[in-house]
Amino acid sequence: MTTKEEYEYSPVAGTDEAAVNTQNDQANVQSVKMSSESKGPTNRKFLYIAACVANLSAFVCGTSFGWTSPEIPKMKVQHEFGNPLAMPLTKGEESWIGSLLPVGATLGPFIAGLTADKIGRKYTMLGGIVPFIVAFLLASFGTTPLMFFLMRFLCGLGVGVIFTVLPMYIGEIAEDAVRDSLGSFMQLFIVIGLLFSYVLGPYMSVSAFNIVCVISPCIFLIAFFMFIPESPYFLIRKNKDQALQALMKLRSKPQDAVQTELDDIKSSVEESLKNKASFMDIFKSKGLTKALIISVGLVSLQQLSGINIVLFYAQDIFTDAGSTIPADICTIIIGVVQVLASGATPIFVEKKGKKYLLTLSAVGMAVSQGALAVFFYVKSGGGDISSIAWLPVLSLVAYIITYCLGFGPLPWAVMGEMFPGNVKSAASTVTAAGCWFLGFILTKYFALVTDLIGAAGSFGIFAACCVGAAIFVYKYLPDTSGKSLQEIQDILSGKSTSSDA
User: Fold this and answer.
1) Cα-Cα-Cα-Cα dihedral of 461, 467, 469, 474, to 10°?
2) DSSP class of residue 88?
3) Considering the entire predicted model, what is its pTM?
4) Max Cα–Cα distance, the chain, nearest Å
5) End-to-end CA distance of the chain
6) Cα distance between residue 352 and residue 23, in whole Å
């Protein structure tokens, strides 16, 4: 059995023969952090505050995800019933409002990829929150479908930027001992944002709700700008003194306790810059190519599970199902379940591992979507559904629980483990953009497909995709828990197996 310490790392130049030196720097960072921590008591209060403030941006993203569920039903009725539009939304206009967020999110990662290394992670995130402020203000005074189209596109642009840079920022400020828990904050804050929309949206006018939605991005903008430092990994390239001050603040320790860690960060950043690689270098390595296939496959299957349809149209789904529980209450139940399930994910992933949870997640989603398909099939056939009126709520609750336990947060976590630092930015940008482009296709044409094959057929397709997801994970995803980057690359390249690594 080979231990992590026996691996030697050399730069990734895009070939199998060139190993991965950047991970050696990460291993050094771990040992340095341990030694620096031993110089004084560990105080992570400010680190957690910084992570929470940064993840207010994820809360804003969640608010925009849940926005369509309470707002679109209002815009589908006559003007005098609270619709700010002169005429109710048509089917085509409704699909564009739902799908333009993924369009913007497809472009966002490319913007973030260009700016994160030029102006920094902090200022890229601050810039990424501005489109949300403009979007919600625009929707507050929106009177035409075109204004709401632009609003949703701007939200998507912000989502694409935040989803790309926030995980990078959290990973760079976190200590190794709490990196997994801090990384799980993103999913938790997203679903809290969804719940925010589900709870307030149905009971406020379109204008009033959007004015309320402006508050959280403004709070993030002010708090993150004024009180939270830039990533030391970025600052070390610009100003070593500023990097030192940022690290001291994040670690709540004096200079002598963080100096060694700072020196190691500098070495790591210099090595990464020296061995910088392009996206095409991925295809020169069997291991990196397989990593890209797995990463793109997981985020694609995440979209094909139907999650955006459920989040964007939750209230409409319950209304169409004819649930005996009011649709807005059903949606709130879904939001609460998301928050609870997302809070439990970090606990289970440490005990069971990513592969186990992803497989369980896919199977659970397949069963719940299949049950929903059966319900709509019986309903469309004129059968008596009074005795199973509870099934849509139970199915979607089960779907949300299993999604949040696995296919919600873990595809992005797997992607973060698959690539060395010098190709991670390029791989992440392409993977995220592909994910959101597929999300656009699904949300844009969901209504059209449902009209052609019915809700039963649509959810049946999603169930089949979830079955495919379970097979994909079982067959192709290696068990990466507790393994180094070099070990993971050896497994992907076929040089070793998860059992002997």
Assistant:
1) -170
2) P
3) 0.78
4) 75
5) 7
6) 25
